[in-house]
Amino acid sequence: MELARTTSRFSFASNCGLFPVKCGNLRRYARGGGDLVGNSVTLRASGSSRRLESLVSNASARGGDEVETVVIERPGLAPFQVLAGSPAPLGATACDGGVNFAIYSSGATAAALCLFTLADLTANRVTEEVVLDPLINRTGNVWHVFLQGELDDMVYGYKFDGKLSPQEGHYFDYSRILLDPYAKAVISRGEYGVLGPGGDCWPQMAGMIPVSNEEFDWEGDLPLQYPQKDLIVYEMHVRGFTKHDSSETNSPGTYISAIKKLDHLKELGINCIELMPCHEFNELEYFSYNSIVGENKLNFWGYSTVNYFSPMIRYSSAGLANCGCDAINEFKTLVREAHKRGIEVLLDVVFNHTAEGNENGPMISFRGIDNSTYYMLAPKGEFYNYSGCGNTFNCNHPVVRQFIVDCLRYWVTEMHVDGFRFDLASIMTRSCSLWDPVNVYGNPIEGDMVTTGTPVGGPPLIEMISNDPILCKVKLIAEAWDAGGLYQVGSFPHSGIWSEWNGQYRDIVRQFIKGTDGFAGAFAQCLCGSPNLYQDGGRKPWHSINFICAHDGFTLADLVTYNNKYNLSNGEDNRDGENHNLSWNCGEEGEFASITVRRLRKRQMRNFFLCLMVSQGVPMIYMGDEYGHTKGGNNNTYCHDNYLNYFRWDRKEESSSDFYRFCRLMTKFRYECESLGLDEFPTSERLQWHGHQPKIPDWSETSRFVAFTMSDSVKGEIYVAFNTSHLPVTVTLPERSGYRWEPLVDTSKPVPYDFLSDDVPDRATAIKLYSHFLDSNLYPMLSYSSIILILQPDA
After folding, report:
1. Is residue 392 a contact partner of residue 426, using CB atoms and an 8 Å limit?
2. Active site residues
């Protein structure tokens, strides 16, 4: 039966509740037949039908009359109306009386909004499908619809039709249900590491439909807004932080359990945590049995984003409860409680690629929605791979860069995070696919086109972020390189506000501390905040994020234990991971070594940590290094959900009077010294270099000794020296009339005399043992050791 054009209200009724639908002119056949009853039409939908057919024709384009409302009955669902909706904002937005849905897709010729109950999502069937009319539900390239009514406990996705032509960059497939890039929570599997129905690693995903009355009690939380020069950053993995049994927390490996251990970070002197990826990712991405370790291989680190707005659901103790709202609130609680303890929260974000990989990867979201917009493509549709992970996010495309800015603003305004570290950030400086100056800048520039992926000056995305009134006030840290060979440490476009992970600091310090010739001068630059990299560009010492170790690479303990990597447990025949680690095992390979070697290793760990704390710039510590965590020489533990990546709270307790004590006291010393977190690069007015003799530094190729004095408004003056030679040396200290030098730190000494804090038993006696040297303005240094002396008035 064909339905005639009319302006009447149509009721499509069956044996269940009402489903009102606002639409334009109607010309469709009822699946189960239908009857005209007065001013309504009753359609009897078949019980097996799960699809709401398009109730809108193109009659309006021919001047036909408009149908006001169509009422559909569906079992077990509250009634709602379907209205035209608004193209902004993108995503699902709760409004008075309903939810607006809007999504960008430039190449789609047809679209549908798919609704699921949680039960239907698990069963991989659509509860309702609302087909969108391009004449009513599309504005420009944005598809939109407003659902008026109750949508509690439902989730959503989209279907798009269009050209399926990979060689032209198009992957439209109407059989695929896709995740909204703007979804605020991803609903799929609720428990970490557990397969979906039927053993599926990639079960259907859907987005949370927001509820207007959902509020979180921030308890007056406000941004801490620490000056960046005052930060001590701690790179932390949420699951790994408390998953080990020794954490003795409820719901280990979750946001909530991490809160229970924040006091440890406070005690250590940390005032900023940098969370490894907490955006939704699929830990089962690499799922396969690893016979070497006898367990399944997982994506533990999380550098493979599925959705950028959603927190990782399976890091929450709530899982899928309340359609993801409880997981969002758990993350917010972590941020709120960190702020209460004076700890800022930064997110490690991965805008360089997504989990969809290359043409052989899964179609989850971006690829099926608008592949040629979201990914950097070659002329024949191939995926550029500057990330080393199969695809490259098309960051400088106008739509994509707005998406990224919207995402970052959401995490700042809604989730209260304090900043971001951008993984492989150099990709964000590369030109996008189909680079067109008119689209990017609004007018032509000299030269018509720029080759896709070419680094550009003043990249639009970086400028958008830098000039955004919200984002320019938070911490912005770039990992200033990518897998395509672009290396921008010291030259990343910064607008005066971007900092960088200083990879050069890591490499130079590792080589100097282990006694490699030719690095004395470069090491001195590192101690000063790397002015050779940042000063000419108008930046400050705090634009350098200094680190010795991070998640990828050796831990601090392994750095002094292994000359070679041992990655066989990754299942890749030891081919993965960095081969050039600039490490030194101190004479014997592996953990089982002589007492002499083990003592030297602890000394070297103290040397590294002391260097980190006395350097200008922002120090960053990797989780577990404060107690000497080992990964057994594995420098690429991305796939291990086990003890290799778990913080060992039992080992931390064992180390509480040893290396952990040293780290805690060194961070405290840094805070106490006004001169160790300068806003400007140090000059000769307060900094003086020394060698074995005062004021005679040795910058020769064979020098393995660097020393300096620094005037300090709190401590008066400090003397710091590094002897990385295999030979001991007696240094002559600079004379200060009316004052004498007093030892505070000597990494060659056993605990607790490595750091002479006020609570050390017989501290005065320990200092007096050196009086015959100090009275002569001398101090003996063992090989591979470092010292800190404090200037004190003569008694």
Report:
1. no
2. 423, 479
